[in-house]
Amino acid sequence: MSRMGRPKAELVLSDDEREQLLRWARRRKSSQALALRCRIVLECATGAANTVVADRLGVSEPTVGKWRSRFVEHRLDGLCDDARPGRPATVSAEQVEDVIVATLESTPANATHWSRAKMAERTGLSKSTIGRIWKAFGLQPHRADGFKLSNDPLFVEKVYDIVGLYLNPPESAVVLSVDEKSQVQALSRSQPALPMMPGMPEKRTHDYLRHGTTSLFAAMNVADGTVIASTHRRHRATEFKKFLAKIDAHVPADLDVHVVCDNYGTHKHPTVNTWLAKHPRFHMHFTPTYSSWINQVERLFAEVTRDLLQRSDHRSVQALEKDLRTWVTAWNENPKPFIWTKTAEQILDSLGRLLQRTNGAGH
After folding, report:
1. At residue 13, what are phi and psi to the nearest 5 degrees?
2. Domain that includes residue 65, residue range
3. I need a surface site. Which of 24, 42, 113, 217 has the fewest CB within 10 A?
4. Do 107 and 169 have their domain in common?
5. Gap between the Cα atoms of 38 and 79, Å rounded
6. pLDDT tens-digit map of 186-225
């Protein structure tokens, strides 16, 4: 006789409950945790088994069982988090919702974003209470991150191409992530820095003198992290061709060279194309537009900036270039490759979820 599993709780929605769940699930700026719980309940209401719902929504089966049971027992109130021990809450759910909705869907007069003080003045709650509500819902109105989605019509193909090189590099070949860190300024502070002391950070003047600029050309071997680098005062196709020639001289002649680089005009200049035609072992792979994150050498430039340039004090371009060369030499003594882990499918799925959230999927 086959063993019967524990029967799942029957879940039937009223029209009002279904309407409320759909509103919470589809609202662009709902708490993501609440939206997921609503979707679980809506799927369960179709009569689907917990395993099926879990597979559809990409969550665990115990998670589905938990929110099914909570809803059956407590209805809509069951989708809220459990009350924590301690003194009873003095802020009502309506007040919390008002704070969250106002934070996400409005701005204060004469300001671009809410502060704790402005929200406290609006709601009558204390600034510390506003801070706790924001923390509980993961809201940080004072922060803003930048982004720009690629409009490249070949975005998918290029992602598969470049990620394929990272995860499954071709045999008898080297994969180089190439770019230029242009307009690196030689800056000298107007006054000497005050050294760090116990209880006091290093102090530097905000003003400085400019002594010229240079560009750092870098090609990072994605397999072992070693770097081929040059510095040039100008940033033209001529300089890029010279850098390609340097790469050609450094890479053993029996290896093909796969170059990952962005769409900057110098990389596609006729001068460069002519040189490439004469060096057939070079294969160019261009990143999608607005997608510098896929070019691993950008991580190397971040290291250069943090280690050397952020607090640099150079009184000539020559001194700056010398320090850049010294930094690259030290890096190559103990290179650190950046291990790429995400497949093209994972990247595209992640971008798809971002677009669903920002575009208000369900409306």
Report:
1. -100, 140
2. 15-79
3. 113
4. no
5. 8
6. 888 877 777 787 887 877 777 778 888 999 999 999 999 9
Q: For residue 146, tell me if it sits in a domain.
A: no
Task: Report pLDDT digits (tens) over 109-156.
Answer: 888 899 999 999 988 888 888 988 888 888 888 887 766 667 778 888
Distance from chain centroid for Cα 303: 17
Q: What string of DSSP letters covers 64-122? A: HHHHHHHHHHHGGGGGSPPPPSSSPPSS-HHHHHHHHHHHHH---TT-SS--HHHHHHH
Specify whether 122 is located in the same domain as 211: no
Domain check: are 123 and 37 in the same one?
Answer: no
Based on the fold, state whether residues 239 and 120 are members of the same structural domain: no
Side chain identity at residue 297, one-letter code: V
- Angstrom CA distances, 29 to 100, 102, 116, 244, stand at 9, 11, 19, 49
Q: Which two tokens stand for residue 52?
A: 């099926």
Does 71 share its domain with 161? Answer: no
**On the CB side of 301, how many CA atoms lie within 13 Å of its CA?**
19
Number of C-beta neighbours around residue 226 at 10 A: 18
131 and 184 belong to one structural domain: no
In a domain, 147, yes or no: no
pTM above 0.85, yes or no: no
* Residues 232 and 290 both lie in one domain: yes
What is the distance between the alpha carbons of residues 51 and 64, in angstroms, rounded to a whole number? 8
